[in-house]
C-alpha cells in the first residue's frame, strides 16, 4: 500500500517574472518555468515514481507543468483531472498589478497583510482561508480517496492552493502557515498512514 501524495507548484510563470499579482489570470510558463517543470519530472523519475492518477487546476501554468513532468516520467497517458477548486488564490482587484505599484497605492503594510495574512482578503479576492474552503473539501472527496486506496497521486497546482493543503496535512496553525513558502517546481512527497495522518514528508530539492 503506497499511499503516496506528491504536491508540485507550477514552474515560474511570465507574471511571476514580471512581479505581477496573478491569481486566476492565465499567463504561460517562462523558459525557466519549463526547465523547473522538467527538473521536477527528472527528480520524480530518479526516485522511481509511477503515478496512478493526477490532479491539476483549470489554469494553464499548472496544467503545462504537469504535462512536462509526465513527459519526463514517460507517463503521458495518465488520467488527469482538472478542477477549479485547485486554482490559485483569487487576488481580486490586485490581479494583474505590479506588486511594487500596489505598495505605492495602498501602502507596504496593507499589501503585506493581503498577501501574507491567513484570513484578510484583498479587495474582491480570496484570503488563504477562503482558498482552503474550496481546496480542502475537494481534496477530501476527490484526491484523498485515491491516495488511501493505495495509490500514488500527483497534484500540480499553485502556491496558495498548495499552502492550504500543506497547512492541513502538516497540522499548521494560521500563524504558522503565514511563513510557509512553496517553491516553484520542487516536489513535496507525502506518505500517509492508514488513518490519513502523515507518516513521512520529503521535499525533493536539488
UniProtKB/TrEMBL annotation:
Q: Please provide the record's keywords in A-Z order.
A: Gluconeogenesis, Glycolysis, Isomerase
Q: Where is the active site?
A: 10, 88
Q: Which parts of the chain span the membrane according to its record?
A: none
According to the lineage, what is the superkingdom? Bacteria
Top enzyme class: isomerase
Catalysed conversion reaction:
(2R)-2-phosphoglycerate = (2R)-3-phosphoglycerate
Q: Provide the GO MF annotations for this entry.
A: phosphoglycerate mutase activity
Its annotated pathway reads: Carbohydrate degradation; glycolysis; pyruvate from D-glyceraldehyde 3-phosphate: step 3/5
Query: EC number(s) per UniProt?
Result: 5.4.2.11
Q: Which parts of the sequence bind substrate?
A: 9-16, 22-23, 61, 88-91, 99, 115-116, 159-160
- List the Pfam families hit by this protein, alphabetically: His_Phos_1 (PF00300)
* GO aspect biological process, one term: glycolytic process
**Site Transition state stabilizer: which residues?**
158
Q: Which InterPro entries match?
A: His_Pase_superF_clade-1, His_PPase_superfam, PG/BPGM_mutase_AS, Phosphogly_mut1
Protein family: Belongs to the phosphoglycerate mutase family. BPG-dependent PGAM subfamily.
Complexes and interactors: Homodimer.
Name this polypeptide is given: 2,3-bisphosphoglycerate-dependent phosphoglycerate mutase
* Organism in which the protein naturally occurs: Jiella avicenniae
Its organism's taxonomic lineage begins at: Bacteria, Pseudomonadati, Pseudomonadota, Alphaproteobacteria, Hyphomicrobiales
Amino acid at each position: 500500500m503506497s499511499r503516496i501524495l506528491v504536491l508540485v507548484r507550477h514552474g515560474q510563470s511570465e507574471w511571476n517574472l514580471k512581479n505581477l499579482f496573478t491569481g486566476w489570470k492565465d499567463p504561460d510558463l517562462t523558459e525557466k518555468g519549463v526547465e523547473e517543470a522538467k527538473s521536477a519530472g527528472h527528480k520524480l523519475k530518479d526516485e522511481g515514481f509511477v503515478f496512478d492518477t493526477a490532479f491539476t487546476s483549470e489554469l494553464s501554468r499548472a496544467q503545462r507543468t504537469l504535462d512536462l513532468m509526465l513527459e519526463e516520467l514517460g507517463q503521458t497517458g495518465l488520467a488527469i483531472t482538472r478542477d477549479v477548486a485547485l486554482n490559485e488564490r483569487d487576488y481580486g482587484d490586485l490581479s494583474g498589478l505590479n506588486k511594487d505599484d500596489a505598495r505605492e497605492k495602498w501602502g507596504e503594510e496593507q499589501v503585506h497583510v493581503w498577501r501574507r495574512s491567513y484570513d484578510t482578503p484583498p479587495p474582491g479576492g480570496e484570503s488563504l482561508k477562503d482558498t482552503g474552503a474550496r481546496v480542502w473539501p475537494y481534496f477530501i472527496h476527490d484526491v484523498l480517496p485515491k491516495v488511501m486506496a493505495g495509490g500514488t497521486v500527483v497534484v500540480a497546482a499553485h502556491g496558495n492552493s498548495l499552502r492550504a493543503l500543506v497547512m492541513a496535512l502538516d497540522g499548521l496553525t494560521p500563524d504558522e502557515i503565514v511563513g510557509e513558502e512553496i517553491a516553484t517546481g520542487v516536489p513535496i512527497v507525502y506518505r500517509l498512514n492508514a488513518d490519513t495522518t502523515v507518516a513521512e514528508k520529503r521535499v525533493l530539492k536539488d
